[in-house]
């Protein structure tokens, strides 16, 4: 791994599964925390910030780490003969892919439930000479449809000639893009962290951090110990938390997410509402937790709101 002189996240071009790149400014900004570390009583807390915080040089213009997943996914899709991509999202993924679509001209079809439509916007930067938004087709599903319905419709659309699904955690470009968070942390800290904390809905980020840590271990310069994964879900909808706590590899819907639709409506963090996460599958969240001796947590809405205030302060 040798950091390159390329824009944004492409600094880690060596370990990204694409031949080309695209001009984005977003990359994780890893810094040693003072305020939050003190509040939590920690001496060595590093934050890998993925969002928009220009004073810190953090320029993910669509404001989430999905902007690490979209660039390599779109570049790689095009290199593999892809002509258009379809995805379902309640916000962050849609914004990141829509933005990358305007930067590259690669067509995307985005399916969202109506109540999430207001989460969709893109920065006003596009390809010169091309009208921003021209390459994006937005399908808004009427009220009563949730994320799971949007996923089902996008799966049907992906069967149309010329259309490909973005693939979620199964897409190596999404995982390796997301893994850049851990690469940036390891390069900044000069070693892998002992612990890795993340809120999960699909768990792609946890899988990505685990896979990146396996490669960093092979590299040899960043330590031998894999970071322990600490993955959190938002109650009342926390299927992976319940399955993991019961020491099960399988999610049993009746036990782990009874009344899923209602539980999802009650969540504060509805971006974490994935009903079929890659938990059981080989190489998925369960394996990542086992291999890193990881742990899962469930956070209530009140706890989430107070943590948000604390972080901002
Ligand atoms: C997508 C997203 C998550 C969940 O990430 P996964 O690893 O895909 O489960 C958490 N936080 C934010 C801000 C996100 O955009």
Task: Explain what you see.
- There is one protein chain.
- The model has no long low-confidence stretch (mean pLDDT 94).
- The protein has helices at residues 35-40, 66-79, 92-104, 147-158, 172-189, 204-219, 239-245, 253-256, 260-266, 285-291, 301-312, and strands at residues 29-32, 46-49, 52-53, 58-59, 85-88, 108-113, 136-141, 164-165, 195-199, 228-234, 295-299.
- With 313 residues, the protein is of the alpha/beta class.
- Helix 2 (66-79) packs across helix 3 and helix 2 (66-79) crosses helix 5.
- 37% of the residues lie in helices and 15% in strands.
- It binds pyridoxal-5'-phosphate (PLP).
- In DSSP terms (H or I, runs of 4 or more residues), the helix count works out at 11
Hetero compounds: pyridoxal-5'-phosphate
In total, the number of strands is 11
**Strand order in the largest sheet:** 7-6-5-8
Spans where pLDDT lies below 50 across 5 or more residues: none
- Binned, the helix content reads 25-40%
The N- to C-terminal Cα distance equals 35 Å
Radius of gyration: 19 Å
Main beta-sheet annotation: 4 strands, parallel
Strand content: 15-25%
Look at the helices and sheets and give the structural class: alpha/beta
On the 0 to 100 scale, the average pLDDT is: 94
